[in-house]
Structure formats: structure tokens, C-alpha cells
Amino acid sequence: MKKSRASFLKRQPQVFRSLTGITTEKFNMLYNQLLPIYNTTETKRFNNKTRQRSIGGGRKKELNLEDQLLLTLIYYRHYVSQSFLGLIFNLHNSNVSRRIRYIEPQLAKIFKIPTRKIETELTEEEITAYFIDATEQQINRPKKNQKHYYSGKKKKHTLKNQIVIDTNSKIRSVSKSVEGKKHDKKLYDESRVYTKEKSNIKGDLGYYGTDRITVPNKKPKKIELTKEEIDFNKQFSKERIKVEHVFGKMKVFQILSQRFRNPRAKHALIFKNIAGLYNLIYA
Questions:
Q1: Chain centroid to CA 229: how far?
Q2: What CA–CA distance (Å, rounded) separates 73 from 77?
Q3: Pick from 179, 141, 185, 182: which is nearest to 159 by CA?
Q4: Strands 150-151 and 156-165
Q5: Bridge partners for 195 per DSSP
Q6: CA atoms within 13 A on the CB side of 143
């Protein structure tokens, strides 16, 4: 096993955070949570009935678990080519891809961010509201069904995700990744998000006409809003801006900021992993 690059980088905390997006303390916490899941996954792999080699046979992994996690985080943070990462970690780019694909579903088991059911450790009195919004990410032009993925808002082909956060700006729910053409209201109706509490959910005018979601006052044609309605909208915007800040911090990880180059089927998994990293760092 080669010398751990993670151990070397952790001696330089500022550089480590710049490369991975998280502190050394959070990295160690994440690694300790990942280790038992990784060991369980490895045991299942070794004991697979279709396995032809005996345990211990075959090619050994070039990277230990710490470096596999480091590789994945650097990929998320900077979204450089896998050939470039292979040069840094002395791996073939196919092995870079293989290591990332192996770690990603294990990270998802740690974060456990739901798609529909919102659960919280806060009491009903502590939860004044949830905030909901959707964001889009550009993708390569699809070969099929291009119209479904073309966003009239962004003027690009995109994938869309919806998140729900609580008053502490912690992400509580992430929807599936859907085609960019889909309206926010329709995405909410299809996602069927629900909470145990009868909490107020606040959203922008994209959710206008949706049950259970409070939105700003919409200006009717040829009629001006009253001062009370304008004041309400200003206060509403000050509260709802939290969800925009969450998106901004998530997109520090360039894999959500740049054009998405991975298979579209992987987008929801990666988006949830970034949401989990956000919660680990900020919430």
C-alpha cells in the first residue's frame, strides 16, 4: 500500500480545506463513519457466491480508504478530469472512475437524505417554517428527448432538483433529478414531500397556487400591491433567502456548478451527497 496522501495533506489544514471543501476534523469524522460501511461492503464483495477468486487473490487496491475518500472529495470540489486526478494519485483514469463509483453509494448511506419524508429532531414549537426551492444545472445536449430537458428559464438543457430546508438552514429533503423543462409546482406535486408536523412551507412564486406552500403576494395586472402586501413580501424575502444561500454554498463543489458531464442517472446520487456534505459542514 502506498503512502497515504490524505495523511500528508492533513498536515496543511488550509490546503486540505481548499482541495476538499471540508476541514480535516470533518474529514476524520466522515472517515470514521465511512469505515464500518466500507468494511461491510468489502465483506459482502469477498463472500459473493459468483466470486471466482479466493479471498486475497486478484489485484490489490492502489489506494487505502482515506485516499479513496480524498480522491472523491477533490473530484466533487473541483470537478477536474479523471485523467488529471489519475496523474495526481498515480492511477489510470479508469481506476479513478472505479474508486469514485465505489465510494459514492457508501457516502449516501451515511447522509441518508430522504426524497419525500421530512424528519427532524427539532420540536414542533422550534420549527417555525420550512423553505423550499429548486435549482437547475446545465447538462450536455441529450441525443433523445431534447425538448424535455431544455429549460426556457436558463436557455440551456438542464436537470432540476428541489430541496427543503428548516429554519436552521439544514437540508431535510432532496427530490429526484428531473428534466429542466418541468415547472417547480409540478415537481413539488410529483415529489409529494410531507412532514409529520403541520408546518408552514415557504416558497417563491414558482409555487404559486400550491397547497400548503406560502408564497409572496403576486401583483395582479393593472393593480398595484398595497403597502402591507409590499412589506409582507420584503419580510418574506428576508426569510426565504436562506435557501438561496444554501444553494450558493452547495455549488462551491464544482460538480454542481459546472456543466454536468457524468451520466444523468448519477445526478441525484451526487446531488444528495453534496447536500450531505453541506449538512456536515454548516448544519
A1: 35
A2: 6
A3: 179
A4: antiparallel
A5: 118
A6: 1
The answer to whether residues 157 and 146 touch, using CB atoms and an 8 Å cutoff, is: yes
How far is Cα 65 from Cα 191, in angstroms, rounded to an integer? 35
Please compute, for residue 95, the number of CA atoms within 13 A of its CA located in the half-sphere on the CB side. Answer: 14
Instruction: Show the cell assigned to 158.
Output: 438542464
DSSP 146-180: HHHHEETTTTEEEEEEEEEE-TT--EEEEPPPEET
Largest CA distance in the chain: 77
pTM, whole model, 2 decimals?
Answer: 0.92
- Comparing CA positions, the residue from 89, 87, 54 lying closest to residue 72 is 89
1, containing H or E segment: none
Q: What is the pLDDT of residues 127-153, one digit of tens each?
A: 778 999 999 999 999 999 899 999 999
- Over the stretch 94-124, which tens digit does the pLDDT of each residue have? 999 999 999 999 999 999 999 988 877 766 6
Q: 243-258 b/e with 16+ CB inside 10 Å = b?
A: beebbebbbebebbee
User: Cα 135 to chain center, whole Å?
Assistant: 11
Number of Cβ within 10 Å of residue 75's Cβ equals: 25
Q: Which three cell numbers stand for residue 215?
A: 408564497
Helix (H/G/I), strand (E/B), else coil: 195: strand
Check the CA dihedral 145-150-156-159 and report its sign.
negative
Q: Specify whether the CB–CB gap between 127 and 167 falls below 8 A.
A: yes
How many whole angstroms separate alpha carbon 214 and alpha carbon 239?
12
SS3 state at 137: strand
Burial of 45 (0-12, 13-18, 19+ CB in 10 A): exposed
